[in-house]
Amino acid sequence: MAKKGQYTYEYPHPAVTADCVVFGYDGKELKVLLIRRGQEKEASATAYVGEWALPGGFLEVDKDKTIAHTAARELKEETGLKLSVKDFREVGTFSDINRDPRERVITVAHYALVKLAEVAADTDAEKAEWFSWTDIPHLAFDHDKILRVAFSRLKQNIHFEPVGFELLPEVFTLPQLQHLYESILEVKFDRRNFANKMKHYEILTEVADETPRHGTRTPVKYRFDKENYDRLKSNGFQLEF
Amino acid sequence: MAKKGQYTYEYPHPAVTADCVVFGYDGKELKVLLIRRGQEKEASATAYVGEWALPGGFLEVDKDKTIAHTAARELKEETGLKLSVKDFREVGTFSDINRDPRERVITVAHYALVKLAEVAADTDAEKAEWFSWTDIPHLAFDHDKILRVAFSRLKQNIHFEPVGFELLPEVFTLPQLQHLYESILEVKFDRRNFANKMKHYEILTEVADETPRHGTRTPVKYRFDKENYDRLKSNGFQLEF
DNA sequence: GGTTGTTTGTGTAATTTTTACGCAAAGATA
DNA sequence: TATCTTTGCGTAAAAATTACACAAACAACC
Question: Does B85 contact chain A (CB < 8 Å)?
Fold first, then answer.
């Protein structure tokens, strides 16, 4: 353990943290990964022990190349989830002078999208838990606010980026995709118009169906065509949902 | 002056700064306010002395309520320009481990839009200078990158917010407004379609013309109708330019 | 004072995009 | 076998976007 008072500066410095809003989708609801505070073997005295919070932690000044690296490292440490640095999108900075009772802490919030089915096994159930978007508990610090801003950022970004495909499994159906869009945008679409519009973009590839699904007519399965998406995008096309 | 080594922490802390990209518009070109580094009577040893840079400076840990307050305070100190805290929109965080040669410095970039004609007299010509967007010098630190990101953020936001009106004088003409949109979006519009679309939004109020203008047919003058804009917006309308 | 050149304002038809909507087939359940 | 839910498909109406031409205001020039 480091000796107290080891690091001195001529002027006061704030602590800087990165927080992570990790969104997942189980085919029905949008979910968020939260941790319970307290178990940490961390530097500073803990605060909000026992409460739910966003995963996150302190920037390591001489290790973390960027604040996104902090986010990735802390997410791994606190939840077991190992994501690439470029999976994190910045939400914004939260800097209210009293947002942390211990000392002045500025946090840079990020969000990330994961394929829930594929990563569910990786999340350390001891520390972390997936919560439905509609059933989020009260959170520590200003994390409620961060969560709201992160969601609104996701809602904006879905208009211009194919973020939906990062939340769905490799192979998915149109009704699944539509339901996801409806969950994020909080609206309802007409099934036929949604399908027409999606197909018009030519970014879906039909996949040969193997495993029939549950109790109704089996929907056609698709895969996101990233090659074509990148090609269209480089030709100046916009997604515009 | 504070004694050296006065502030100690158990773990290393980064310094945090706020930088400001202030955009103005002179009726012809988009402009940016820059300062020349060096004159500062600041805490830390200076870096990039004599080079051009974005105005900005260090968070005062126990004074600045939020990082936006830092931006406003530093802009005032360095350029004389006094803006309200809510005039600043966050661009993003820049945190590369080597972006400042002195110590680890995280900066939160902001942008602000001003009515150039009204504030030009306030800017301290000793320290600050307005540069045309098309003729920006090389900047200190990673400020070139920050500037590019700030501009792209402005470019995005103009689609959803009436940002154009923050850059124009109270009273302006349609050709001025169109030219501003073209400058920011880097496209050309058809004059008639632009006028039709704008008028369709019903956010412009015609103003009785008093002072005829320069060498051609005098254009009709307008004022931004904020009341109606807010009303339309609360009814769920979108600007969508 | 007339001519020329530049800038502004206006409206409509053609095209494209978005919206609204009905029906038949696939499979599950009773 | 009948019924229910879910999926896939296409078209007509409405709305938005685009393309486009001419006349009037004013300045500058002769």
Answer: no
| 8 A C-beta contact, residue B23 and residue B184 | no
Query: Which residues in chain A are closer than 8 Å to B108, comparing Cβ atoms?
Result: 93, 95, 106
Least Cα distance to A95 among A146, A28, A47 occurs for A146
Report the distance separating Cα B21 and Cα B89, nearest Å. Answer: 10
Domain final residue, candidates B129, B157, B185 = B157
In a domain, A2, yes or no: no
Which domain CATH number covers B107? 3.90.79.10
- Taking Cα atoms as reference points, which of B19, B58, B53, B56 lies closest to residue B35? B53
Tally of CB atoms within 10 A around A158: 19
B200 CA to D11 C1' distance (Å) = 30
Asked if B26 and B109 sit in the same domain, the reply is yes
Q: List, for residues A113-172, the tens digit of each pLDDT value.
A: 999 999 999 999 889 999 999 999 999 999 999 999 999 999 999 999 999 999 999 999
Rounded Cα–Cα distance for residues A125 and A129 (Å)? 6
**Per-residue CA distances from B157 to B64, B91, B164 (Å):** 27, 11, 10
CB B57 within 8 A of CB B77: yes
**Range of A125's domain?**
15-153
Q: Say yes or no: Cβ of A240 under 7 A from any atom of strand C.
A: yes
Query: Which letter does DSSP use for residue B134 in this model?
Result: G
Query: Which DSSP helix (H) or strand (E) runs through A131?
Result: strand A128-132
Q: Which amino acid is at B209?
A: D
- In the predicted model, residues of chain B with pLDDT beneath 50 are 2, 43
Number of domains in chain A: 2
